[in-house]
Amino acid sequence: GGREGAAAQAAGRIATAQGATAPKRDGPEGTAAAGVAATGDEILDGDEEEEDEEEEEEEEEEEEESSEMSASDEDGSWIAWFCSLRGNEFFCEVDEDYIQDDFNLTGLNSLVPYYDYALDMVLDVEMPMEDSLTEEQQEIVESAAEMLYGLIHARYIVTNRGMHAMYEKYRGASFGRCPHVFCQGQPVLPVGLSDLPRNYTVNVFCPRCHGLFFPKSTRQANIDGAYFGTTFPHLYLMTHPDVIPAKPAQQYVPRVYGFRIHRSSLYYRNHEEQHGSGGGNDREHRRRGKNHRQLANR
Q1: Within a 10 A sphere around the Cβ of 54, how many other Cβ atoms?
Q2: Which stretches in the chain have pLDDT values below 50?
Q3: DSSP 8-state symbol, 177
Q4: Where do Acidic residues bias regions lie (predicted)?
């Protein structure tokens, strides 16, 4: 019993000593420790506030982006969206009135899969059966809409309104410029080598040298040439003769050490033989035609 009483008294003294010494932390060491603890709490609070602010900013940015997307979806049409895509700078916006005229779309239903769905997508018409389409079918419809618009575009740009829209792009060199040195940056016009889709990609035609080139941008170089057709640049120049530029004033002459290469050289002969058969036949036909005319005159 004596030991237990002594232990209890000792414990009481230790507790009293701890209670008496605790307030001494308000001194220099205690104040510093408290300051460090307070600063740490403030830093943690500051970090939490910054994180909260960043999260709020991210949420606001996401809301702004979503609102912009929804606004663009509401305000802009599918046609405007399609023409604004990178790589589609060659396309002009086709008037919806033109697309709504069935006469202008004659024969396209046999070329475009999911034609009705594609047409509704181009004209921003809600498709009642859209939910019943699979994801793969949705992708096909989207591709079909692009194809349908491209084929309509080829027909539209040979109309007066279409030519005017393309002229604005031509004037701003939106189709690029001729790489021929002596054409001096002549703006070019888009052209296809076939009126049927999936045959050739689009090329550009120079009105000055009549050369045909690949578009400068690889994005544009992958566009189907049928979306511009074989007629547009030539019909445009025929109906607007005032914009036809003169031929290049200079012509490149190959030289070796400053001397011209003679026309009888293999340099020219081998080059011309690439077209020799066709050229020879043409010359032969012209010669025979001339002989026949001479005999007829006799």
Answers
A1: 10
A2: 2-4, 6-8, 10-11, 14-40, 42-44, 61-72, 278-282, 284-288, 292-296, 298
A3: B
A4: 42-74
In the chain, CATH 1.10.1820.10 covers: 78-162
- Chain position carrying tokens 């030289």: 255
Q: Specify the fold of 78-162.
A: protein kinase ck2 holoenzyme, chain C, domain 1 (1.10.1820)
b/e code 71-93 from CB counts within 10 Å (16+ = b):
eeeeeeebbeebbeeeebbbbbe
Q: Per the structure block, which two tokens stand in for 258? A: 């400053």
Nearest to 94 by CA among 154, 13, 52, 43: 154
Residue 205 β-bridge partners:
189, 212
**The CATH number of domain 176-243, selected from 3.30.160.100, 2.40.40.10, 2.20.25.20, 3.30.365.10:** 2.20.25.20
Q: Where are the CATH 2.20.25.20 domain residues in the chain?
A: 176-243
- Summarised one tens digit per residue, pLDDT across range 73-91 is 555 899 999 999 999 999 9
For residue 132, what pLDDT is reported?
78
pTM over 0.70: no
pLDDT confidence of residue 272: 78
Question: What pLDDT is recorded for position 23?
Answer: 42
